[in-house]
Amino acid sequence: MAKIISGKEVSAFLNQKTADEVKLLNDKGIAVSLAVIIVGDDPASKVYVNNKKKACEKLGIVSFEYALPENTTQQELLDLINELNNRNDVNGILCQLPLPPHLDEESLINAISPEKDVDCFHPVNVGRLYTGTGKLKPCTPAGVMEMLKYYDIDIQGKNCVVIGRSNIVGKPMAALLTAQNGTVTLCHSKTKNLIEHTRKADILVAAVGKPKFVVKDMVKEDAVVIDVGIHRMENGKLCGDVDFDEVESVAGYISPVPGGVGPMTIAELMENTVTAAKIQNQVI
Length: 284
Ligand code: GUN
Prior knowledge:
This protein has helices spanning 7-27, 43-59, 74-86, 105-111, 123-131, 139-150, 170-179, 194-198, 244-247, 262-280; strands at residues 3-4, 33-39, 62-68, 92-95, 159-163, 183-187, 203-206, 224-227, 231-232, 238-239, 253-254. By secondary structure, it is an alpha/beta fold.
């Protein structure tokens, strides 16, 4: 039976460190703040934004919410981002995705000052990630790295297989594992004989976006399996990209859904917000 990698436990550990850092900065007269922009009424996005706001409150981070109507124009958003870039009392800026289809996500991401880009989506920060010169980290992949570290899972020289090549998870995940000397294979929807790759994985990260996609036969005995997916099943329950009940019997470690990677993403966002405040106040 696999050991459980608890995102609840690791995020609580990380959040405590972040809260301590916020307090230290506050004691020096430095406030830490995050501005979150949400456009339209997407119910899932509303839940995520609310969770980010609650996390800020818990850790002593000031949050500013900009809930804008569905018909907001590109120019209005650019103007808001520009204003937030220039405000000294705003350290982090996050524009919740997806945006309504009439808006151009790429140019909005590019408009956020790289020093305030707590999502680590700006091309400058993506470049820094690949050269190992960045301080801000991509939240979900950084959360996975933190989980591996907390459970003392060695990455050096290990076969790491990532399924999914999104800009938010798969690609930066591969970059972070590579930086820790993993031997990384990045698989995706066009990969031939996927199972031949996944069966070689010492560390397998599933970020495919398909419910219960990873089954027992795809997993090597004692592998570390991290599940980045989250899906609502017909019975109302949540599941991940991994068929937990099957894979649990073969893996060495496994992260559950819910209670796995989910809480880590927000914990890393909070940590990035503190890092952004430190960069802007030149205390890093
Ligand atoms: N939508 C889903 N996940 C994310 C995220 O990590 N950041 C932003 N900005 N939007 C998202």
